[in-house]
Design brief:
This protein is an alpha/beta fold. Helix content is 34%, strand content 17%. The protein has two domains: 264 residues, Vaccinia Virus protein VP39 (Rossmann fold); 73 residues, no CATH class. The strands form two sheets. An eight-stranded mixed β-sheet has the order 1-10-9-2-3-7-6-8. Helix 7 crosses helix 8, helix 11 packs across helix 12 and helix 12 packs parallel to helix 13.
């Protein structure tokens, strides 16, 4: 059987596993008659839900990615909340097939801070002693008519305001809501992700918090409500049942002490999203890759964006597979990978 030949290469004996796991491992593979799989060390253009079935079953040691957060980014245009849930849940479901037994899925995500809820009462908060920002949506649109490709940080600099103000005016992301617009609330995402992973057969293994810095590049802003400034995100670790190798030699003793065995990771976010709206720092995939995989193993990113996970894989001598919906970002990531390969030799298994 195809599954048997795949796992034999990993030293994994199917018949020694619990009966229920044997059936669970076989079922997704038998349901996928694909015989021509996409190859590692490439960024593929398309929807993860279409391309994940083309990844060789039981081949990926780690999948680490940051999906759309449903916060009004350009690449989320036209995406309803139901669409968003369907995208993330189906992407997670498809991971049981591609992860090797004992492999991991790590999802970097944040709660939705400005979830519009029409059922909430429209009560305008009385905010005392705060400076009102005169910039309007019309002001921003006027600048965009002259500079249609201007990024959020560029608009903020031109209009002498914060990126937060730009986002609020353009996308309606006002954490307070009001009398004339739907009130907003926090939407806790962790429970949804856990439910989707469990339904896929993946086990919640760990969760960590990434402490970054204020989310707006050119302003040390503070909240105008009782809600906290958003300075952290979550990393949810999901394990595909199977042989689990814990090797402390992957990190130095100091690294194990400082972050390998710590639930809180602290490192800066990307300060200039100049070529992608929502890049995560190289340190994030680097840590997960070094912690959970061996050199030569395959690392997957289902929402590869500007290719940061692929770059981290190259630097750590792992193979990579990237999937990205927007063709412009595929081109961007390929350029970055090409530049990286002039400095580092790509490991080919």
């Amino acid at each position: 059987m195809e599954f048997q030949s795949t796992v034999e290469k990993q030293g994994f004996t199917l018949h020694r596993q619990p009966k229920g796991l044997q059936d669970l491992f076989r079922q997704p593979v038998l349901a996928a008659p694909i015989r021509s799989y996409i190859q590692p060390n490439e960024i593929y253009h398309g929807d993860a839900r279409s391309l994940l079935p083309r990844v060789e079953p039981n081949s990926v040691a780690l999948s680490v990615w940051s999906p759309p957060y449903f916060v009004g980014k350009e690449y989320e245009a036209g995406l309803s909340f139901d669409d968003w849930k369907a995208l993330i849940s189906e992407t997670i479901r498809l991971h049981f097939q591609v992860l090797k037994p004992g492999g991991f899925l790590v999802v970097n995500i944040s709660d939705i801070l400005c979830f519009k809820d029409p059922s909430l009462p429209r009560i305008q908060a009385e905010v005392l002693n705060c400076r009102k920002v005169a910039v309007t949506k019309e002001d921003i649109i006027a600048v965009l008519s002259k500079k249609p490709n201007a990024k959020r940080h560029e608009l903020a600099k031109i209009l002498n305001c914060s990126e937060q103000t730009i986002d609020r005016r353009l996308n309606g992301n006002n954490v307070r809501g009001g009398k004339y617009s739907a009130q907003t609330r926090i939407r806790i995402v962790g429970g949804l992700v856990e439910e989707w992973a469990l339904s896929a057969g993946l086990i919640p293994y760990d969760r960590r918090v990434w402490v970054k810095d204020a989310a707006w590049e050119n302003s040390k802003w503070f909240s105008l409500s009782y809600r906290a400034v958003d300075e952290f995100e979550y990393l949810y670790f999901f394990w595909k049942p199977g042989p689990l190798k814990i090797d402390r030699t992957r990190l130095t003793q100091a690294e194990w002490r400082d972050w390998g065995s710590r639930g809180v990771w602290t490192f800066p976010s990307v300060r200039a999203n100049d070529d992608h709206e929502a890049k995560f720092p190289l340190e994030l995939p680097m840590r997960t890759i070094r912690l959970l995989t061996e050199p030569g193993e395959i690392v997957l990113d289902s929402f590869s964006g500007s290719g940061t996970t692929a770059l981290a894989a190259i630097k750590t001598k792992r193979s990579f597979i990237g999937i990205e919906l927007l063709e412009s970002y595929v081109s961007l990531s390929k350029q970055k990978i090409s530049q990286a390969l002039t400095q580092e030799e790509l490991f080919v298994s």
